[in-house]
Amino acid sequence: MKKLVLFTLVGALLFALLSGCSAKVEPASVSIVAATDLHFAGREFHTYTGAFQRDSESNGSGKQMQYLDDILDAFIDQMLAQKPDYILLTGDLTYVGSKASHEALAQRLSALKAAGIQVLVVPGNHDITSATYILPEGEPVDAPSVTPQEFREIYADHGYNGALSYDKNSLSYVYDTGKGSWIFMLDTNFQYGATFGELHEETMSWLKSQLKRCKKAGAYPLLAGHHNLLVHNDRFRFGYVLGNCDALLSLAKQYGGDLYLSGHIHTQHIAREDGMTDIAGGSFAVYPHRYGTLTVNGGQWEYTSQATNVSAYAKKIGSADPYLLQYEQFGFQFFYDRAFEQAKESLSDLISDADILSRLCDLIARTNVYYFGGTPSAIDLDDAASLRPFLSDTRWGDYLDTILDGTEDSIHADSTSLQGAEG
């Protein structure tokens, strides 16, 4: 009788293995942190002075390169205290994709791995490029880049080792949390180094097969990639939203997916369409250096975005740098000043009244900081309404209109009720 029972159990196990079925796991809570667009360079290779760096800062993007090493250290310190199960980094890990920057970042992330926190990464459009440089004295010097294979090797401990399945045609993979949720890390680069994103046909076939496995296992599929699945701003569609977004949306929905994490657009924003939620995280390199905290339990999830507390970390390590110790004020002012100067340069020839010009630049600068930070509710709408007529037939007027069309904050969402979402 014992032999019969043993034979039956072995036969059932063999059948499951041969048929590719995954054993169903009862859902349990999984804690996840998501960050994107780190644009990490590494202070060892970049000196943030010189005309080239000043010109880069003046474009209004707001990247805080000078203190980014410290901000990343603050984030890692907070993660070591928070201890999430996973940290997802959805692309543009590095400034311009130098091998030195990738290796330095992977080394920094090893502290999280050592603490039992699994980091999962995928590349963005800045990570695998042909034109790569470092800034040892503030001016660009050619530096080695990475191939897709080298990227996989550098980040072997941060997703590629231990994945349930890899796509042989891209750097996509799927990770089984063991708690009833699978994390699909999608390489959305149609061509490395290009802004445009789209999943290749072969990758879509791989994804479909893995989503089938996920559904058979009774697990929830969480999808993440660099490019956006849904539109977050009508002015930023081409080059930001995936070229085959409709096909991916349909496929995800077919197998129970209703949440996608992205980046690329640098705006903390939540979009919802046809039962799918796309949460685009703000660039980690830009004030207020946000990251999202996500709890997933089966098909139920809740997301909240929060800012990295740089000044608290500076005090903790005994820093004497006054900018780090008062970083929240400094970080805001840095981003504000760059946007103000960009607006002033653009509008000076159009607006002759100095007071109106100053007010317009202030409005644009504050709008920029609040919008990219995911808190457009802080924008003074009365001030915006009174100043908007001065921006007729300008790109700034169109830009303000797309933002002021919906000023709900985009820092919280869940699977049952969505707050601050724009479709």
Radius of gyration: 23 Å
Distance between the termini: 62 Å
Mean pLDDT: 90
Strand order of the largest sheet: 6-7-8-9-10-12-11-16
Helical residues, percent: 25-40%
What portion of the residues fall into strands of 2 or more residues? 15-25%
Number of strands: 16
Poorly predicted regions: 1-22, 418-423
- Mind summarizing the main beta sheet? 8 strands, mixed
Q: What is the chain-wise order of helices and strands?
A: HEHHEHEEEHHEEEHEHEEEEEHHHHHHEE
Question: What is the overall shape?
Answer: globular
**Number of helical regions:** 14
Structural class by helix and strand composition: alpha/beta
Compact summary:
This protein has about 425 residues and is of the alpha/beta class.
Give me some keywords for this one:
disordered C terminus; disordered N terminus; 14 helices; eight-stranded mixed sheet; six-stranded mixed sheet; 38% helix; 423 residues; alpha/beta
What does the model show?
The strands form three sheets. This protein has an eight-stranded mixed β-sheet. A six-stranded mixed β-sheet has the order 3-2-1-13-14-15. It has a two-stranded antiparallel ribbon with strand order 4-5. Helix 7 links the parallel strand 8 (181-186) and strand 9 (220-225). Helix 3 packs across helix 9 (310-316) and helix 11 (327-347) crosses helix 12. It is 38% helix and 17% strand. With 423 residues, it is an alpha/beta fold. 43% of the residues are buried. The radius of gyration is 23 Å and the shape is globular.
Structural topology:
Blueprint: H1 2-19, E1 30-35, H2 51-57, H3 68-82, E2 86-90, H4 99-114, E3 118-122, E4 133-134, E5 141-142, H5 148-154, H6 156-160, E6 165-166, E7 173-176, E8 181-186, H7 201-216, E9 220-225, H8 245-254, E10 259-262, E11 269-273, E12 276-280, E13 290-297, E14 300-307, H9 310-316, H10 322-325, H11 327-347, H12 354-372, H13 381-387, H14 395-404, E15 412-414, E16 421-422
Parallel strand pairs: 1-2, 2-3, 8-9, 9-10, 10-12, 11-16
Antiparallel strand pairs: 1-13, 4-5, 6-7, 7-8, 11-12, 13-14, 14-15
Helix pairs in contact: 3-4, 3-9, 11-12
